[in-house]
Design goal:
The complex is a heterodimer of chains A (674) and B (98). By secondary structure, chain A is α/β, with parallel strands linked by helices. Chain A has 25 helices and 23 strands. Chain A has 4 domains: 219 residues, Metal-dependent hydrolases (TIM Barrel, Alpha-Beta Barrel), CATH 3.20.20; 139 residues, 3-Layer(aba) Sandwich (Rossmann fold); 116 residues, no CATH class; 96 residues. The longest helix of chain A is centred in the middle third of the chain and has 42 residues. Chain A is extended. Chain B has 98 residues and is an alpha+beta fold. In chain B, strands 3-2-1-4 form a 4-stranded mixed β-sheet. The chains are: A alpha/beta (674), B alpha+beta (98).
């Protein structure tokens, strides 16, 4: 097996933050990681001089390459290195093309590199920014493999026959202050490292793996060569032996890791915990809440600009001006006597009712699922002629509507000009139809809000032995509104008007954009979520923590690795054995899971794929931290520097508090059974 | 067919459905709608107002406004009809066939 890394940066491009390349670090990386072959792939550039210096300073094969921004994604282009001048010239064209735009097109890419079959092409595949499907289709015959960002995605691609051969590379910047030597590389099954052999291997899923000896069961986590399983790992060890430190070190080296720390989910203070819990539950169900309130939101949006007080003032202004106009006849002149001077505008109502009816008729005509029932009750021809008649009516009304709008514009313009000229009192504008409609809308709005606030249960669902219940009702105080707003806005004044939805809406508007108008609807109805235990009572602090843990583990699906530190410190054995073990086992089928434990219920019953034991050992007055690891079926666990421990001894010591304690317990259980 | 005319310094309008000419300052919104329909459905004539043609200033304001607004429609007479007809055109054609 040969270990390769074909994604290495040695020059800071405009896509990177500044760094200084270090030849010594590169050599250290090659030596420590035991790399057999690398490629240098800088963003949109090829530094020929530097590449030749690197080649001269190292002893392994090094291929020239470039990482090109292509159609919003990135692709590695690696050449055989036979004709550096030609490759350099292609890369110079990429640099100038990418200098003016953020990425080049497939056509430009093909023009620059011409015969793509002579390169190794590796696009970002299960890695951001990932190649678009259509770009991949166009390049597919020449694409060698696809780069992924984690062992989880590597395994996923391997298992799916339709996906590209995965490769896992460091994508690292070789800087003089590089903190951790990268552990992300791919093994290929080949003897000689010629360009064509490597390319051949990268096209074959059977020939790529994450580890040298154990195929894809293991992958490397630390620069010293420490591996863990791509499935379920259990770390055991004495107090202060480096278990939590190991998890922390893993999480620092891998992106997109979910790390559930020890005691993270334990309830500490009842009130704070309850509040945090409710908030989290509300966040998780925010889509449900939004959906429940969506109709109310539409109504709020529709009435938001209605101002009943202003409507009343407009009516008063109109009446007063009308009376004045009638009284002061001596002031009337040719302008005020024109009919249009006092003309009212046409009412232009929308045709939503007719529009909906047409849409419903169309549904009846097109529906396939209930065709037989519809046909039995309403003849299709009748529906079609109804549709045509409604449409004709609609177009007639629509035309008339547009004409009325046109006339209104004209009337308005004439009135304005006449008003400027006349000495007679003008009549204020007033739209009685709109005023009445606004009043009706507000009445309905009040009634809808009150209905939505009526206390009741709107959702109940099962979730891993618990029940989640959503209830609606009224808010009980300004504090709740403030909490909902997640701001420092004071709601005291607004809440005084809460009992009248219209008044409350005006009060929210008076907060002057400290609350976005698009969120007003949330403040009318309180939606509260509760977790009930299997007996139907509200969950206790401990039960809430159990629920949290299960949710956290389940949510980890979105990550590339899951790390859990001593779940037993917060939960009882029955819960761990029945619920936690099952869900951890499930999730480890799709991603690497590392579980720190000293509890045999977790560590043994869960049957891990890989066992790691951390030890603090003192040698000649010096403290050494070691990790011993192996498959649970191995007779012994070994450290990267060649030391071994018997697996049986480790299990006895850390799961059973030693062999004698285990024997004693075993005898006690036998006595109890007798 | 003429719908707007100027005679002896006064402006008049007459939709096709009406037999007599009326003073332009007596026009109301329904009268405007009828003029618009006549303008869209027929080839109509309208006397162009110049600055001195109408002695009554109120008439001048009204006449000029109507004349100009109709004029801007001249190149786009099918505006109202087209926009309405385009809605669901395919469906109407499809369902009218059966």
């Amino acid at each position: 097996m040969r270990k390769i890394d074909f994604h290495i940066h040695t020059v800071a491009s405009n896509l990177d933050s500044q760094f200084s390349f270090s030849m010594e670090k590169l050599k250290e990386y090659i030596e420590t990681a035991k790399l057999d072959c690398i490629a240098i792939t800088n963003h949109n550039l090829f530094a020929r001089d530097q590449f030749e210096r690197i080649r001269a300073a190292t002893s392994i094969p090094i291929f020239p390459g470039i990482e090109v921004d292509l159609e919003g994604a990135q692709i590695l282009v690696i050449a055989d290195g036979q004709n550096i001048a030609d490759f350099d010239s292609c890369c110079t064209k990429v640099s100038s093309a990418c200098g003016s735009v953020s990425s080049i097109s497939v056509n430009q890419f093909q023009e620059i590199f011409e015969d793509l079959s002579q390169y190794i092409l590796i696009p970002h595949y299960d890695k951001k920014p990932a190649i678009k499907e259509q770009t991949l289709e166009r390049l597919r015959p020449h694409v060698t493999a696809g780069e992924v960002s984690s062992p989880k995605k590597f395994i996923y691609c391997l298992k799916d026959a339709d996906r590209l051969v995965p490769v896992y590379f460091s994508d690292c910047r070789i800087r003089d202050d590089l903190k951790h030597i990268p552990v992300r590389q791919t093994f290929i099954d080949c003897n000689e490292l010629s360009f064509s052999t490597v390319k051949h291997c990268l096209r074959d899923k059977q020939k790529v793996s994450l580890s040298e000896a154990d195929g894809n069961e293991l992958f490397q986590i630390f620069e010293d060569g420490q591996h863990i399983s791509t499935g379920l790992n259990v770390i055991i060890g004495g107090r202060s032996s480096g278990k939590s430190h190991t998890l922390q070190a893993i999480s620092e080296r891998f992106p997109n890791v979910r790390h559930i720390k020890q005691f993270a989910l334990v309830a500490r203070d009842e009130q704070g915990d309850q509040m945090r819990f409710n908030e989290l539950l509300s966040q998780q169900h925010s889509l449900f809440s939004k959906d429940y309130l969506s109709e109310l939101q539409r109504v709020v949006d529709d009435v938001i600009d209605i101002d009943l007080q202003e409507d009343e003032r407009a009516a008063t202004r109109y009446l007063e001006s009308l009376l004045k106009h009638a009284r002061e006849t001596e002031k009337h002149d040719v302008f005020s006597r024109a009919v249009l001077f006092a003309e009212e505008l046409y009412q232009t109502a929308d045709q939503n009712g007719l529009r909906d009816l047409i849409a419903s008729t169309k549904n009846l005509i097109r529906n396939e699922e209930f065709r037989a029932i519809i046909d039995k009750n309403v003849p299709l021809d009748g529906l079609k002629s109804l549709y045509v008649e409604l449409m004709i009516l609609f177009t007639e009304r629509d035309q008339l509507h547009r004409k009325k709008v046109w006339v209104n514009e004209l009337v308005q313009r004439v009135k304005e000009q006449l008003k400027i000229k006349t000495a007679a009192p003008t009549i204020a504008d007033f739209d009685p139809y709109k005023t009445v409609l606004n009043n009706r809308k507000i009445e309905k709005f009040r009634s809808i809000v009150r209905r939505a606030q009526t206390p009741r249960e709107i959702m109940r669902k099962q979730c891993r032995g618990f029940e989640i219940v959503a209830e609606v009702g009224q808010f009980s105080g300004a504090g709740e509104l403030k909490q909902l707003s997640r701001s420092q806005v004071a709601f005291k004044q607004a809440f005084d008007a809460y009992d009248d939805p219209y008044g409350f809406l005006q009060a929210l508007k008076a907060l002057e954009e400290r609350i976005p108008a698009a969120e007003y609807y949330k403040f009318f109805v309180k939606i509260e979520y509760k977790i009930l235990n299997k007996h139907g009572f509200e969950a206790s602090g401990g039960e809430r923590s159990e629920f949290f843990l299960l949710q956290e583990i389940e949510n980890a699906q979105a990550f590339d690795m899951l790390l859990i530190d001593e779940p037993e410190s917060s939960f009882d054995n029955l819960f761990l054995k029945n619920d936690v073990n099952e869900i951890i086992k499930d999730i480890s089928k799709t991603m690497p899971v590392v579980l720190v434990t000293h509890n045999n219920t977790v560590g043994v019953s869960i049957r891990p794929d890989y066992l790691l034991c951390t030890r603090k050992e003192v040698e000649g007055g010096e403290v050494r931290w070691r990790i011993y690891s192996g498959f649970p079926t191995d007779r012994q666990l070994s450290s990267v520097d060649g030391r071994v421990l018997k697996t049986w001894d480790v299990a006895m010591q850390y799961f059973e508090a030693g062999h004698s304690a285990y024997e004693e317990r075993r005898r006690s259980y036998e006595d109890l059974e007798d | 067919m003429k719908i707007l005319k100027i005679e002896s310094g006064r402006g008049f309008y007459k939709p096709p459905s009406v037999s007599d000419w009326n003073d332009i300052d007596k026009i109301d919104k329904d009268g405007l709608l009828r003029l618009l329909n006549a303008f869209l459905d027929h080839d109509v004539e309208m006397d162009a107002p110049d600055d001195t043609a109408l002695s009554n200033q109120a008439q001048a304001i009204i006449y000029k406004s109507i004349f100009e607004k109709l004029k801007t429609l001249a190149d786009n007479k099918s505006k109202f009809k087209d926009e309405s007809d385009r809605l669901y055109l395919a469906e109407i054609q499809k369902y009218s066939q059966s």
